[in-house]
Design brief:
Elements: H1 8-27, E1 34-35, E2 41-47, E3 51-58, E4 63-70, E5 81-87, H2 95-109, H3 114-123, H4 134-141, H5 148-159, H6 164-182, H7 187-202, H8 205-215, H9 221-228, H10 235-244
Antiparallel strand pairs: 1-2, 2-3, 3-4, 4-5
Helix pairs in contact: 1-2, 6-8, 6-9
């Protein structure tokens, strides 16, 4: 089915966001944007021979999404992975909103190692090491809680780095509690639960511990249940949540850092 015809406001926003991304991606060797079939709104795709990014506007949910995928032998997308989601009202969305979305999407795709990161993340087989850390997760939370960006800067200024468990306890838990307890049917909460599932799937042991032991166990029973039963929470995470809840109040030893033989390149220069 063809893309839907968008209103002028959304079309202008789509064009502006696409222009910002295509300029950056073409400098990385991606082809110019092409229309992509999307029955619930509008989408375009920008490809190399191996990976691709897609911009989507979902008319039903009134939101923009940036996705990535690897390509098969026929240069066709395999499994799409959501990288960023932003609400954009068809009538009230402004140029400033579109600029913010474009800048966020741009931050996601920037960096010479980003293509390798996308491929590694999506081609990783079962049992291979997960490589998404807590700081990457905090950066993605900025989409839902913009104030976290300044709080991360304050944390680095004060302590020289980010303390994952402490930052989660002091800065993140209350925000998630409010959203989960009071607005559990909102689109923002659904988007947040999708992020939780993606981060749990791809997170290293530290991130998994931050999510289950520090964040989820810091929630009230009502908020915890709303997270666990949300339709966007993966079966794996929902199952593990019911077991880690039993660890609430108990001290857990942190993951020991493995010695690194040699650093060749950072997987994600946005950490």
């Amino acid at each position: 089915m063809d893309n839907k015809i968008l209103g002028a406001n959304v079309q202008n926003a789509f064009d502006a966001i696409q222009a910002v991304l295509s300029e950056e991606l073409e400098s990385q060797g991606f082809k110019a944007p092409e229309p992509l079939e999307y029955e619930d709104g509008k989408a375009s795709i920008m490809k190399t021979d191996e990976v691709a990014y897609s911009i989507v506007y979902d008319s039903k949910r009134q939101r923009f999404e940036l996705r990535s995928t690897t390509l098969n032998g026929d240069e066709q997308p395999t499994e799409w992975r959501s990288l960023s989601l932003w609400l954009f009202d068809e009538k009230e969305g402004s140029k400033a909103d579109a600029d913010s979305i474009g800048n966020d999407f741009l931050e996601v795709v920037k960096g010479p190692s980003r293509v390798e990161y996308v491929m590694k993340k999506q081609k990783r087989g079962k049992g291979e090491d997960r490589n998404v850390d807590p700081v990457f997760f905090f950066n993605r939370l900025v989409n839902t809680f913009p104030e976290i960006k300044a709080e991360l800067n304050d944390e680095r200024i004060m302590y020289g780095n980010v303390r994952p468990a402490t930052f989660t306890k002091e800065r993140v838990v209350a925000k998630v509690e409010d959203l989960a307890a009071r607005y559990s049917t909102s689109d923002a909460f659904g988007k947040l639960c999708t992020l939780f599932s993606d981060m749990y799937k791809d997170g290293d042991m530290d991130l998994r511990s931050v999510l289950t032991i520090t964040l989820f166990n810091g929630l009230s029973d009502k908020a915890f249940e709303n997270v666990k039963t949300n339709e966007n929470i993966s079966a794996e995470l929902s199952k593990d949540m019911q077991f880690t809840r039993k660890l609430k109040g108990k001290k857990i030893k942190p993951e020991k850092k493995k010695k690194e033989k040699k650093v060749v390149a950072r997987l994600d220069d946005r950490r």
